[in-house]
Amino acid sequence: MSDNEVGALNSRDVTRDIFSASIGSVACCYTGQPFDTVKVRMQTNPAAYPSVLFTSKSIVSNEGVPALWKGAVPTALGMVAENAMAFGVNEALKRTFPDEAKSDPTKRPDLMRPFLMGAITGCCSATVLLPSEVVKAKTQVVVGNTGASSADIYKKMMKRQGIRSLFIGFDAQIMRDMPFYAFFFGTYELNCYLFRTFVPSMPEELNFFLSGGFAGMLGWAAAMPFDVPKTNVQASWDSKVVGSYFPELIRIARERGVLALYTGLIPTIARAFPANAALFLGVEMGKKFFDQYLWA
User: Fold this and answer.
1) Which of 294, 274, 268, 231 shows the shortest CA–CA distance to 52?
2) Could you give the CA distance from residue 51 to residue 266 in angstroms, rounded to a whole number?
3) Which residue intervals of 162-203 are DSSP H helices?
4) Whole-model pTM?
């Protein structure tokens, strides 16, 4: 057996990571997209969209219910690519640097290791996610249905700035994704451990669902101050690949106060639980399906 087959990047494990992440990504996207659209409108135009309820009603009444899923297709594609990278990198790191306590139930696992691996994962996934995030941000702020499709936005981006337009706000993406994934994967492992320890009768599927939902909420709570300027940078047609993020962060804090960096927190947290509960449940069930039916 070759080193490739027994290493962290052996073909079976990598295929399993990509398959399970894809299943979870689609479930996550269509569960959480309406909340995300509301959040983006509130972040980019807080004067016109002051609250979650008002924004939701405004979108539905003026643009129809399907408008809540604006940008869902590039988001789903981006999520598949992002989570294939994120879960793939994270699982590869766990195989490369295994926690010895995992094989010994009498030992307490290293609960800081998943946080560190999550931060590393965030740097990698940000590179993959960036193009779809830029298209999504520009699509979601378009009011009305004329020229509002992802394809229309993409064509306009290519015409105005070329390929460079797909990488607008690279520094913003890194600043958002590092803390997010640190808490995302870190608190997921912590939650699973706590539920197994203190609620041993809980079904594994419910553990995955609840742990994933809480991990998503905590991840977004940690990343939210970095997400608001990121959204503004990527939704703008005048931003640069690198260099627009920190001026935007400072501008928001000066003009609207530090609390403005948490604009959209409520719809984000509301979205985070069901979307990430669906994501982790889909990933874990995808692993089981893969092991039983696709590649035993």
Assistant:
1) 268
2) 9
3) 170-198
4) 0.78
Q: How far apart are CA 220 and CA 214, in angstroms?
A: 10
Taking the C-alpha atoms of residue 173 and residue 245, their distance in angstroms, rounded to an integer, is 9
pLDDT tens digits, 67-119: 888 878 878 887 888 899 899 999 999 999 888 777 776 678 888 999 999 99
Indicate the burial class of 23 (C-beta count within 10 angstroms; 0-12, 13-18, 19 or more).
buried
What is the C-alpha separation between 172 and 191, in angstroms, rounded?
28
pLDDT digits (tens, 9 = 90+) for 144-167: 766 668 888 999 999 998 999 999
Residue with tokens 């460079």: 164
- CA-nearest of 257, 204, 263 to 232 is 263
Kind and range of the H or E run holding 280: helix 265-289
Percent helix, strand and coil across the chain, each rounded to 5? 80, 0, 20
